[in-house]
Design goal:
By secondary structure, the chain is an all-alpha fold. It is built from nine helices and no strands. Helix 1 runs antiparallel to helix 9 (about 165-175), helix 2 (about 25-35) crosses helix 3 and helix 3 runs parallel beside helix 6. It is globular and about 45 Å long. The two termini are about 25 Å apart. Mean pLDDT is about 85; it is low at about 110-115 and about 185.
């Protein structure tokens, strides 16, 4: 992750000004020593999650854990499989789930009052939207299940419960230049 992107994540965060960012180099080294054999991307995700968990309020972290956001939803996995997701799409879903954790915790908001919720609103992981972004970054075709009502509903729920600023950061974290436009078929 480059400096510009990490700054964007910090500035757009519900937990801005992100005081733990001052520990970035410390955690980078520590997590490289622990997880370095798993690759740079894994180290970056572990580092970002560590920093966000330190900056977020304890109420928000408790809400996030209570909602099961630290792992994938078995229901979403079952829905993908039962609606014809390929093995490659299911693998991409697993891989993009790490980004989904970062986004869900970093961008919590309460859509009704237009304020950051600090743990009071519904907590949602943007699993389907992050999966779509990863598939797009890999130049994969739009999945057959993408336009089905169930997955449109998932995406709407993901979008409704997260700060709008997360989309561009998520796209860039996956290697895209920016979040695809609506006519690009990804929203």
């Amino acid at each position: 992750m480059n400096r510009e992107l990490s700054t964007q994540l910090e500035n757009d965060s519900a937990w801005y000004p992100r005081p733990s960012k001052t520990l970035r180099s410390y955690y980078q080294k520590l997590l490289e020593d622990i997880y370095g054999t798993l690759g740079t991307s894994f180290v970056n995700v572990a580092m970002e999650l560590s920093l966000i968990l330190m900056d977020a309020s304890s109420t928000a972290v408790a809400s996030w854990l209570h909602a099961g956001c630290e792992h994938q939803s078995i229901q979403v996995n079952e829905d993908l499989k039962s609606h014809g997701a390929t093995d490659e799409e299911l693998r991409a879903h697993y891989e993009s789930s790490y980004l989904s954790m970062i986004i869900s915790l970093n961008n919590m908001k309460d859509a009704k009052v237009e304020q950051h919720n600090h743990g009071k609103a519904q907590v949602v992981r943007p699993d389907i939207m992050c999966l779509g972004l990863l598939l797009k970054a890999r130049d994969q075709p739009r999945p057959a299940w993408w336009g089905m009502e169930k997955f449109c509903s998932y995406r709407k729920g993901e979008d409704d419960h997260l700060d709008f600023k997360w989309k561009d950061s998520a796209a860039k974290l996956l290697g895209l230049q920016s979040y695809p436009s609506a006519d690009g078929g990804d929203s």
